[in-house]
Amino acid sequence: MADFKFEPMRSLIYVDCACEDYRPSLQRWLYKTHIPESISQFEPYVTKYAFYPSYRMPEGGESYGYARLQLTEHHWLVSDLDPRLGIKALQETFPLDVLVWQGNLPASALGKGQIETEGDAGNAARQTNDAEGNPFIFAFLPMWWEKDIKGKGRTIEDGPNYRFNMSIGFPEGVDKAEGEKWLFEEVIPVLEKAPECTRILASQVKKDINGCVMDWTLELWFGCESEWRKVMVEDVKSIRKPEWAMTDTFPYLKPRHNVISCAVGDYTPFNNLTNYRGYITMR
What is the pLDDT of residues 147-186, one digit of tens each? Predict the structure, then answer.
């Protein structure tokens, strides 16, 4: 690997579950098939591979494109998009059904077979967009947070954290500087002022890695769901609706296209590189 560029980075995949009837199938594929196949492919250059289960979608979460299954996190040592990593001894098992279960494709795609790919199936899925579905959001970030806006010095002993992770992408045609001015000068101050919001962190999405439509990823921490609702449904009503708004309610962006989110806890038992022991079924 001496000639590979050492480029530590983190990635997040927001995994929705389009309807409850799909949940058993989606979870089975993830834990029975996808985890071991993924580890087999990238274990030499990934240091963390974890699933953080979503808390239930809070009232008002739909406006934020809430992902109802999980947040998937990877820590990479090299870019997953290096073409040399596309040569696989075995192709991953990634049926189109998975994208239906996740809401990326319409139900009409069920049973249509395997994703056509010469490399990583997850990246191929990202490109499988459909007008009737939602984009597959695979956001690459710097390994470390870039902006520490509120709550520096907080420790795990300061209480439980309802970690609301949200990625946003400004609408096509909107000047990014204009969008960032609105985000950091009008939105963030409202969140900073709220005592229920204990932590605010932010990083720019590394759009050069895979062309992700998102621009910024933020984490906003609360003590519980009701505190989230007080701030993210009620307090945000005071935030000015920008001229480029896509909807009439905050965050004024198209859910699952220009805003996607998930609320998770600090800890997950699904740190797969260290905890996964196979698809061991219940007796």
Answer: 999 999 999 999 999 999 999 999 999 999 999 999 999 9
Quick one: average pLDDT of 245-254? 98
User: What does the alpha-carbon distance between residue 94 and residue 219 come to, in Å, rounded to a whole number?
Assistant: 30
Residue 247's region, left for phi above 0, alpha for psi from -120 to 50, else beta, is beta
Relative to beta strand 199-204, strand 46-53 is: unpaired
Structure token digits, residue 220 = 């906003």
Pair 279, 31: CB distance under 8 Å? yes
| CB-CB contact of 264 with 176 (8 Å) | no
pTM above 0.90, yes or no: yes
What is the 3 state secondary structure string of 201-251? EEEECCHHHHCCCCCEEEEEEECCHHHHHHHHHHHHHHCCCCCCCCCCCCC
- Cα 51 to Cα 233: distance, rounded to the nearest angstrom: 27
Under 8 Å CB-to-CB from 17, ≥6 apart: which residues? 23, 26, 68, 69, 101, 102, 103
The pLDDT of residue 1 is above 60? no
DSSP string, 140-181: EEESS-SEEEE-TT--GGG---EEEEEEE-PPTTS-HHHHHH
**Residues with Cβ < 8 Å from 250, sequence gap 6 or more?**
63, 232, 236, 237, 239, 241
Q: In 3-state terms, what secondary structure has residue 72? A: strand
The count of other CB atoms within 10 Å of the CB of residue 13 is 21
Alpha-carbon span 118 to 141, nearest angstrom: 25
